[in-house]
Amino acid sequence: xxxxxxxxxxxxxxxxxxxxxxxxxxxxxxxxxxxxxxxxxxxxxxxxxxxxxxxxxxxxxxxxxxxxxxxxxxxxxxxxxxxxxxxxxxxxxxxxxxxxxxxxxxxxxxxxxxxxxxxxxxxxxxxxxxxxxxxxxxxxxxxxxxxxxxxxxxxxxxxxxxxxxxxxxxxxxxxxxxxxxxxxxxxxxxxxxxxxxxxxxxxxxxxxxxxxxxxxxxxxxxxxxxxxxxxxxxxxxxxxxxxxxxxxxxxxxxxxxxxxxxxxxxxxxxxxxxxxxxxxxxxxxxxxxxxxxxxxxxxxxxxxxxxxxxxxxx
Length: 314
Prior knowledge:
Blueprint: E1 2-6, H1 13-26, E2 30-33, H2 54-64, E3 69-72, E4 75-76, H3 82-96, E5 100-105, H4 110-116, H5 123-142, E6 146-149, E7 154-158, E8 171-174, H6 181-188, E9 191-195, H7 198-215, E10 223-227, E11 229-232, H8 236-240, E12 251-254, H9 256-269, E13 273-277, H10 284-297
Parallel strand pairs: 1-2, 1-13, 2-3, 3-5, 4-5, 5-8, 8-9, 9-10, 10-13, 11-12
Antiparallel strand pairs: 6-7
Helix pairs in contact: 1-10, 2-3, 3-5, 6-7, 7-9
């Protein structure tokens, strides 16, 4: 299993850089950035608050981080035309020396679409757009030129140069919808990602396997990742405040020994990469301590697999 960090885009840039470079130096495998423009509001109202834009952020990290794999988790498809995304992705790939993975999703956050006048569309239309976008981006990154006539996107003899450093830039599709999103992943993705518990991951992974069989693809050709909020400490009184709390997101809660057992369940479920958000960790200094504790006393118990993504020239 491999381990990556997911710094909050609401942190100031110096804090994000400290968190990511610290993980780079320690030996973590990757870092991801979210693609949002404002904090989420469950009622769909625009909210003030600092949120750094994903493409500028991942490009900045690519120029400052030496080893980590970098990616978007995930780029909201409706915000940008897929041809723009493909050209941005290959640029970041070159800045990073071939360490970029393009994470793409259908989009979901109501308040930012409404505030900026971007039509969120109904779920079926969002997925129709995502499916076409995956086809467009795949062609742009792999073919000399692309001509595409779809319902939502049209391209004529469109180039995208230079091509990815390693010959093939990995496409990650994010989402856990079993009927459409995971079928899109089976068709186009090098990787699939969703928020899941270990038990849910096992179920979703089996769904992805069935979709792969349906489209004639080897299920083993798609890497699989998930993430969970982390509440890790050796302070039992602090942990007691977090144990048993309800959460909309999967969580890892406990001492290093307890969290090691919980991560082990993900490994048994077949997770290739576990992504750790730093959103629950407070200031950057405390986040660095928590991530160091996780790396030194949890991640150390898990075998290191080969890097994710296609090989050079693949």
